[in-house]
Amino acid sequence: MSNNVPEVIVPRQGSTPAVRTPFGYITEDHSRLDKFQNGISGVCAAIASVAIVAIAALTALEVFTRTAFGSPLGWNVGFVEQYLMMAVAFFGTVTAYRAGAHVAVVTIFEKMPPVVRKLLLVSTYLIVLAGLVLLTYSGTRAAHFSFVTAEMPPPGMAELPWPTWWWKTIIPTASVLGLVVVAIDLYREITAPLTSVVTDYEPGNFQEEG
């Protein structure tokens, strides 16, 4: 590019004018549904954020106790792997979906007529919902099995002596929250006219929700 020509980045204009907020979007036609979705996204973001801070704090504490006293915590590894990283991954995914944080290449999508874009979005929501249903089902079964069998870490292990079903409920809980968020998008799309794409949000400007 020539040095005399300034580089201009123009954000993609979605089919639905929307304002980006910290945890999602706000539109004029469905502001209540938007705020409900954004509320779920905000809760998931808070859980994931606390988990990230806890991971950093436990890592620093582990280094300190190992270096200063020659006595590592031990239990922190299992706690981070089973609780904190699971929370970051699954609750964070819900927020990333609602806030449009996932990587997407929309070059071809933008060139499609509204009817095709609508069908693609509906298909995407159905696929995502199917995956979340499977996660909810399998995660619930695993947590239920751990509960009825009173599964716990064996005595003498470095892990915390907490019931295993506690951390196994993370997946189905986050999946149910994701189901609600995606189902609302699907509902809005299939109840709108065929030629109207209502959940293709414009990135817009960032502002705090009122």
TrEMBL record:
Localization annotation: Cell inner membrane
Domain of life: Bacteria
GO cellular component: plasma membrane
Domain Tripartite ATP-independent periplasmic transporters DctQ component: 55-190
Stored Pfam families: DctQ
GO biological process: C4-dicarboxylate transport
InterPro entries, per database record: DctQ (IPR055348), TRAP_DctQ (IPR007387)
Residues passing through the membrane, by range: 40-64, 84-107, 119-137, 165-187
Alphabetic keyword roster: Cell inner membrane, Cell membrane, Membrane, Transmembrane, Transmembrane helix, Transport
Coiled-coil ranges from the UniProt annotation: none
GO MF term list: transmembrane transporter activity
Signal peptide: none
Membrane topology: Multi-pass membrane protein
Listed PANTHER family: 2,3-DIKETO-L-GULONATE TRAP TRANSPORTER SMALL PERMEASE PROTEIN YIAM, TRAP TRANSPORTER SMALL PERMEASE PROTEIN
The family this protein is said to belong to: Belongs to the TRAP transporter small permease family.
Name of the featured protein: Tripartite ATP-independent periplasmic transporters DctQ component domain-containing protein
